[in-house]
Design a protein that fits this description.
- It is a single chain.
- By secondary structure, the protein is mainly alpha-helical.
- About 65% of the residues lie in helices and about 0% in strands.
- The chain has eight helices and no strands.
- It has helices at about 15-35, 40-55, 60, 70-90, 110-125, 130-140, 145-150, 155-175.
């Protein structure tokens, strides 16, 4: 029976040989690659798989009569793969995972911001017209107290007190946003 021909239940001779290689040499390969990968188990496992893949792709190396054991060939391939992987990592910038860098500015999700905007709009509608006018001028349009007083024709002190009571009323209507309204 030749390599690659079916034995039983869809398995081939090559698959059996590969499984035997894994059982016999997997431990020493993993130990070597774990050391060469600075203790990174995932990388070492990936390199073991890549080494066994190379063995599967080159069956002539496994059946060569020049040496008694295939282990030296496997260890050499594994060592070269580890060196190539290390060089590749050093040649490109490090990858960023799911973690957020400490100096990164955290921004809210667009959907959350849109929902908050709708909540605030509905809450502002519950204010009295006097409080709403002051709040819109001072907080949403950026007018100063003096400019709002002049626009509304009321004293600056009244603008300040209406803004204070408008924010207080919003805190009651929007309890989850209370920290944003201070």
């Amino acid at each position: 029976m030749t390599a690659g021909t079916s034995l039983t239940h869809g398995t081939t001779t090559a698959e059996h040989e590969l499984a035997a290689l894994q059982r016999e040499h997997g431990g020493p390969l993993f130990a070597l690659l774990l050391r060469l990968s600075d203790g990174d188990r995932q990388r070492a496992e990936d390199l073991v798989q890549e080494t066994l893949l190379r063995a599967w792709q080159h069956p002539e190396a496994l059946h060569a009569d020049a040496f008694d054991s295939v282990r030296p060939w496997l260890l050499t391939v594994a060592r070269r793969l580890a060196i190539d992987a290390r060089r590749a990592r050093q040649a490109r910038p490090s990858e960023v995972g799911d973690e957020v860098p400490e100096n990164a500015r955290v921004t809210a999700d667009h959907a959350e911001r849109a929902a908050a905007t709708l909540d605030v709009r509905e809450a502002v509608k519950t204010l009295t017209p006097e409080h709403r006018d002051v709040l819109i001028l001072v907080y949403f349009r950026g007018a100063s107290v003096a400019e709002a007083a002049q626009t509304l024709g009321i004293p600056p002190g009244t603008v300040k007190s209406r803004a204070y009571y408008a924010l207080r009323a919003l805190r009651r209507v929007l309890p989850g946003y209370a920290t944003d309204l201070r």
